[in-house]
């Protein structure tokens, strides 16, 4: 009895039939299997059973029956019933679990309420950073937010120093929220915006008039040509595609790309802000006129990514410091004439700076932020000049007051007495005698002496000191680029993306379309364009344009 297993090497057009005996290995519905071949069998002198010629002219094609079934493949070591290794099965399950987790995470991050909450939280921290003094020593916060008298009944210095709100814009809480918002923007881009762009770029033709009539705008042109409609749409700035009787047109695809650009621009802004908070240097110094300092000596890193550039070896010399005044005597502007020298002592730059007009060199910005009174040059009885250091005196408010003291020799006095000198600015000095009585006022530029307690006093010069802030901020170009791109892409996002479908149904053109913005304007535009489509006129058996027949 031949085996139920056989290989058929026949032309596919040949049908084969043969009855196979029942087998316990086959299900009941397959107990009788018919296999045969529609070719004439030869008589007793023909070939042996098991080999049947396939017919004249096709001797190379035959049916071969095997007396025994081929051996069943044995399960390999470590394989399951389907021949899969457990390790591969585990890897597949782990990969599926990873994909599900990734999809779930992207779904959570791209949630719009979450992104709005993150932006409000960041805005709240920024507002808090403007209220709470930044960069002050801990003692300042101990005094401002004492534990025995909390602000609002519960805010103490621990609420400020523990989360790092004394350096708000580099605190882990603030930077963590920026990173979370950036992740939400990227997730929204990949899960929502990019698929929308792919769909918008796809040429989608509609072959059903009912589908076209379901669009936001739908109209039928009873005697029109789809080719004429395409020409009209191309003249209006549409990209037009036709396929048989169908037409698809769109314009304003840039409006679909704009939200992606907005997200990328916001990520650039946050990346630049993060780099500024973690990779910058900052320092401040008060330098008297005529002295100098090395930039690297006063610069302090602000984050873990701060890398000192070679320009930190530059030396800054204050050539001159001077001030301008209003008619009322108040200070209107102050200036610093600065020179920069390299390691070889060569002057590489000289510039006069003022408030809101800084000096920039090698990635370092030097700002004019403050001024002070350093010393007073005084001659006594023709001797000198003596440099008397001016000390700041404590006053209520923002007014400045500086004072100095010139001792006088008096053997009859048990204590030290002398002449007191006070100044609010560099243009006038008020003098008092050793008894504290007002004597007079002198300007340093007047060169007029004054006699006090038998001594001739001459004010030679008032030496001011300039207050400078220095910083490096590698994130500023990124932030500026991000804000520029944000403004541009925001404007582009207001462009409407319009889509139009049309179908030629006999002499009727069914037109439908939609727009994601400015829907009323889109309907008005469509009505105006469709009115321009020429009407077809029948002449005998031919159909021509109305314009052509008129001509």
From TrEMBL:
Location(s), subcellular: Membrane
Membrane topology summary: Multi-pass membrane protein
A single GO BP: cytochrome complex assembly
Predominant cellular place of this UniProt entry's protein: membrane
InterPro entries: Cyt_c_bgen_Ccs1/CcsB/ResB, ResB-like_domain
Transmembrane segment boundaries: 108-132, 173-197
GO cellular component, one term: membrane
UniProt keyword annotations, A-Z: Cytochrome c-type biogenesis, Membrane, Transmembrane, Transmembrane helix
Residue ranges occupied by any ResB-like domain in the UniProt entry: 114-378, 436-526
PANTHER family linked to this entry: CYTOCHROME C BIOGENESIS PROTEIN CCS1, CHLOROPLASTIC
HAMAP family (alphabetical): CytC_Ccs1 (MF_01392)
Protein name: ResB-like domain-containing protein
Provenance organism: Triticum urartu
């Amino acid at each position: 009895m031949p085996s139920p297993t056989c290989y058929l090497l026949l032309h596919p057009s040949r049908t084969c039939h043969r009855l196979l005996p029942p087998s316990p290995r086959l299900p009941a519905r397959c107990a009788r299997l018919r296999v045969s071949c529609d070719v004439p069998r030869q008589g007793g002198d023909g070939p042996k059973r098991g080999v049947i010629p396939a017919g004249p002219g096709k001797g190379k094609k035959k049916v071969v029956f095997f007396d025994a079934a081929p051996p069943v493949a044995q399960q390999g070591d470590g394989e399951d019933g389907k021949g899969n290794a457990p390790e591969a099965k585990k890897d597949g399950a782990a990969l599926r679990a990873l994909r599900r987790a990734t999809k779930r995470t992207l779904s959570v991050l791209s949630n719009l309420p979450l992104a709005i909450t993150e932006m409000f939280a960041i805005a709240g921290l920024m507002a808090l950073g403007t209220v709470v003094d930044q960069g002050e020593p801990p003692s300042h916060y101990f005094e401002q937010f004492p534990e025995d008298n909390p602000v609002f009944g519960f805010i103490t210095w621990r609420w400020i120093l523990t989360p790092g709100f004394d350096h708000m814009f580099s605190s882990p809480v603030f930077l963590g929220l920026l990173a979370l918002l950036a992740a939400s923007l990227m997730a929204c881009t990949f899960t929502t915006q990019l698929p929308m762009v792919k769909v918008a770029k796809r040429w989608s033709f509609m072959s059903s008039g009912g589908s076209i009539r379901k669009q936001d705008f739908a109209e039928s042109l009873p005697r029109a040509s789809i080719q004429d409609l395409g020409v009209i749409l191309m003249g209006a700035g549409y990209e037009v595609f036709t396929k048989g009787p169908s037409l698809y047109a769109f314009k304003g695809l840039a409006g679909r790309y704009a939200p992606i650009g907005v997200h990328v621009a916001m990520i650039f802004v946050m990346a630049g802000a993060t780099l500024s908070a973690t990779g910058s240097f900052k320092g401040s110094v008060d330098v008297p006129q005529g002295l100098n300092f090395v930039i690297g000596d006063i610069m302090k890193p602000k984050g873990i990514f701060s890398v000192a550039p070679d320009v930190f070896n530059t030396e800054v010399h204050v050539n001159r410091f001077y001030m301008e005044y209003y008619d009322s005597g108040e200070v209107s502007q102050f200036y610093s004439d600065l020179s920069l020298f390299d390691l070889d002592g060569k002057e590489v730059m000289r510039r006069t700076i003022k408030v809101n007009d800084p000096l920039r060199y090698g990635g370092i910005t030097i700002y004019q932020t403050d001024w002070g009174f350093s010393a007073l040059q005084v001659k006594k009885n023709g001797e000198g000049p003596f440099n008397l250091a001016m000390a700041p005196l404590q006053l209520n408010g923002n007014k400045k007051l500086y004072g100095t003291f010139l001792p006088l020799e008096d053997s009859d006095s048990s204590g030290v007495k002398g002449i007191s000198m006070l100044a609010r600015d560099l243009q006038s000095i008020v003098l008092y005698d050793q008894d504290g009585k007002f004597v007079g006022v002198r300007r340093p530029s007047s060169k007029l002496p004054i006699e006090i307690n038998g001594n001739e006093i001459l004010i030679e010069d008032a030496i001011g000191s300039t207050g400078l802030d220095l910083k490096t901020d590698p994130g500023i170009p990124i932030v500026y680029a991000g804000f520029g791109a944000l403004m541009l892409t925001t404007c582009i996002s207001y462009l409407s993306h319009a889509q139009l479908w049309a179908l030629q149904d006999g002499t009727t053109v069914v037109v439908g379309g939609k727009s994601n913005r400015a829907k009323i304007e889109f309907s008005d535009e469509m009505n105006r364009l469709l009115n321009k489509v020429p009407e077809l006129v029948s002449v005998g058996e031919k159909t021509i344009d109305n314009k052509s027949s008129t001509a």
